[in-house]
From TrEMBL:
Pro residues: compositionally biased ranges: 250-267
Residue ranges occupied by any Gnk2-homologous domain in the UniProt entry: 18-122, 128-239
Identification of the protein by name: Receptor-like protein kinase At4g00960 isoform X1
GO terms, molecular function: ATP binding; protein serine/threonine kinase activity
Biased composition annotated in UniProt, kind: Low complexity: 625-639
Record organism: Populus euphratica (Euphrates poplar)
Domain of life of the source: Eukaryota
Pfam families: PK_Tyr_Ser-Thr, Stress-antifung
Amino acid sequence: MLFIFSCILLHLAFLTIAQTDFCSNDVGNYTTNSSFQRNLNSVLSSLDSNTQIDYGFYNLSVGQPGPDQANVIALCRGDIGVDECQNCIRNSSGKILQVCPNQKEAFGVADTCILRYSNKSIFGVMEEKPVSILVNVVNATDVNQFNQALQTLMSRLRSTAASGNSLRKFATGNETAGFDTIYGLVQCTPDLSEPQCDECIAGAIRVIATCCDDGQLVGRQGARITRPSCNLRYEVYSFFGFTPATPQLPASPSPQAPSVPPPPPPAEGKKRNNARTIIIIVVSTVSVVILMISCICLYLRIRKPKEKAETGDETITPESLQFDFSTIRAATDNFSEENKLGQGGFGSVYKGTLSNGQEVAVKRLSKDSGQGDLEFKNEVLLVAKLQHRNLVRLQGFCLQGIERLLIYEFVPNASLDHFVFNQARRAQLDWERRYKIIGGIARGLLYLHEDSRLRIIHRDLKASNILLDADMNPKISDFGMAKLFVMDETQGNTSRIVGTYGYMAPEYAMHGQFSVKSDVFSFGVLILEIVSGQKNNCFRNGETVEDLLSYAWRNWREGTGLNVIDPALSTGPRTEMMRCIQIGLLCVQENIADRPTMASIVLMLSSYSLTLPVPSQPAFSMNSSTYQSDISSSMDSNSRVTNSSEAKTEALPLSANEASITELYPR
């Protein structure tokens, strides 16, 4: 009985571990009442009051980019509820500030959550160190059999977690090992890409075999390995609760892919259950008392900042985003021609270098918007809250007199049209990269349509509005600023059409009606352009002149879809390319209801088990004389439309895009 009791204590220690904190001096320290401390206290207190996030992942920033900006990531275990998650993060916030009183970078590991902050950028960055390791010292009965089953389990969970979406990358399961059943859990911070998550978990799994001087993890019945970007845990008993489905993913439309319910936890002996129940009740009672005292102290400490947050935005304020005009003027060398990246319909774009060495793109807006300063700030705040790896991030703004500047992250590889339509550069876009670009654009649009706080409709999605970072990852640009200049719109309808010939859905081009399906249409055109390497405007095909949609539809219908594929794509899976052509044709159907949602498209791109519907004929020929006549008569004198065939982008090192019209409205 004593042996059983001591083993249960070891197991229980994993369930209620004390928080482990790692304080780093690599990025420097801060002083009392410094800007960084104020920003850090503000962002940590906002975690406690954030009721918008119910999926256990928080990535927030406060302060201007630079040494005083506080960036925070908090991640709760995927099987716990919102209340338990917030309690864990609240306690971790208080504890980590006590253990690391003046470090600008720290990492805390608690029972059901992790918390890290830094003044450097940590979003979308895989971090492997420091590592927290907890070991169950009891050996498995058959070490070889146990390790083999453990590797099988971890490999399966690793793949499942890595393929999760931008809200949750989490997986649980079990595997039989002789007389034992191994229960496992793996998790990544959802801001990681699928390869990053896979690599992080793989490294954590390797720790099992390589850790410690005597290899003390090998053959142990349980361990917990926690890195800043991922963690894993395994035991010979069920330690996790019911695992909810990954949020925001649509139900599969295919009857061939039924959902599989999670396996029920196995029954355990009465004696062991009773002992564990008694201990859990005792420890939980003590923990609740300590938690109540901690909550009272923490509430008293953060009450004033929290009350301030309730009157405005709890994470980002206009003051934290506003730059001095002199700072931006110095960064762009007084907006010199040498730093000019391009000219758009709503202003010029310049490259700038801030005093800390950070490169930014500065859009100097035209001076005829007629909008008030307060209104401008409020709408900038809405866009600044949009944080996704496939969106160009707004870093801040500047207001001085009639000057209005928008400061974005700098994206070095120009825009997609500089590559896919360029005979010399398109060779750099092999199929793997093109497919990655298609998937990234889809995930960015899904975030705008369904995952962001406000539903965003882009309305000017095109190749020149897709920027490529140093790793050729796509970032959607101009996804919100045009709303700052257009005040006569109503939800779903507009008297002012802004867009680009060839990408506009017919209901928007003809009648000014827009919805998320308008963006789906534009995305379909983009897919066909990326696969074919052809612009959507008219091109000569032997004796005939066709537009891209008609050409793709005719070849797909006649079974000659391979003709649509870019000849530069000499390698790559043809079935995957043909699948993308079919998805593109589904997106450009005339009937709005027939077009898939972005959630369905993301699922189509990631799951080959789904049978795709048969598309109907595209809406219209983009550059026919009938279309030109109809759209011209439907637009008023205020309309702004650009023709993609007339865009001169090849001479520009970075895309000079027309600002888009974007509708933002509460869900």
